[in-house]
Write a structure and sequence with these properties.
Number of domains: 3
Number of helices: 2
Shape: elongated
Helix content: 10-25%
Radius of gyration: 38 Å
CATH architecture of the largest domain: Sandwich
CATH topology of the largest domain: Immunoglobulin-like
CATH class of the largest domain: Mainly Beta
Strand order of the largest sheet: 2-8-7-4-5
Order of helices and strands: HHEEEEEEEEEEEEEEEE
Number of strands: 16
């Protein structure tokens, strides 16, 4: 189009026609062809396309923590899939960054995290930020109060010292690892009788067992073990058979 061929037009319409023609000429005259775009512009476009293609390949992000309720000071592991291969993944809990590692060549993660001792208790949204793809995966998470360290010093008592075969032997104890596993064991004439219970939040336990029929007269030993620390306490008891034969 040549501007000289535009017929005169009165008023605002004429101004609009001339302005429109000028804009058309300007864009033709000064618009840079794609072939002459700067190297930086081409590189940026390539990077954006690459990330977009990787996001399509990786698909939906997903994370699964090894536990959804963890005490402050304890550790857990976050497994995840669908991230950009070999790119950075940031784990966040609230406003705190817990870890930052790379996904593997398949876009998977397995990141071990240790919560700080003073992490505030409560419910959170655990987030795994996919830096390469610009999106994130989330999981509900709860931080529990840190357990105060207590000294493990088992102390066990038996309700009675003398039993006959078939009687119930009741025992109780304190000073064990809170919520830890505690085993009760008795060795009787070549046989081992073992049971396990869990201590309560205060480290207290209780258990009962039946003295096996056929147990001979004698003194036996109840061995109670705190399985986490290995600490033990023992108590002796006596078995006497009735002599009414």
């Amino acid at each position: 189009m040549e501007i000289n061929n535009v017929k005169p037009t009165k008023g605002r319409r004429a101004a609009a026609v001339v302005a429109g023609s000028a804009l058309t000429l300007s864009s033709v005259a000064f618009g840079a062809p794609a072939a002459f775009a700067s190297d930086d512009q081409q590189q940026t476009a390539e990077n954006q396309t690459s990330h977009h293609e990787q996001s399509e390949e990786t698909g939906k992000l997903d994370i699964t923590p090894s536990s959804t309720e963890v005490r402050a000071g304890d550790s857990f592991t976050v497994h995840g899939t669908g991230f950009v291969p070999n790119d950075d993944v940031e784990l966040r809990l609230g406003n705190e960054t817990l870890a930052e590692e790379q996904a593997d060549e398949n876009g998977d993660i397995a990141i071990e995290v240790e919560l700080p001792d003073d992490f505030e208790t409560g419910g959170y949204s655990l987030a795994a930020l996919n830096h390469g793809g610009g999106d994130a995966a989330y999981a509900d998470f709860k931080v529990l109060e840190k357990l105060e360290e207590t000294e493990v010093d088992p102390d066990v008592e038996i309700a009675s010292d003398e039993f006959a075969p078939g009687d119930t032997l009741k025992s109780s104890g304190e000073g064990f690892t809170p919520e830890g596993v505690v085993s009760f064991a008795v060795h009787i004439e070549g046989r081992n009788f073992v049971g396990e219970v869990s201590a309560d939040e205060n480290g207290d336990v209780g258990d009962k067992m039946t003295v096996p029929e056929g147990t001979g007269d004698g003194t036996y030993e109840l061995v109670v073990t705190d399985e986490e620390s290995g600490e033990q306490d023992t108590e002796e008891f006596t078995v006497e058979n009735d002599d009414d034969d």
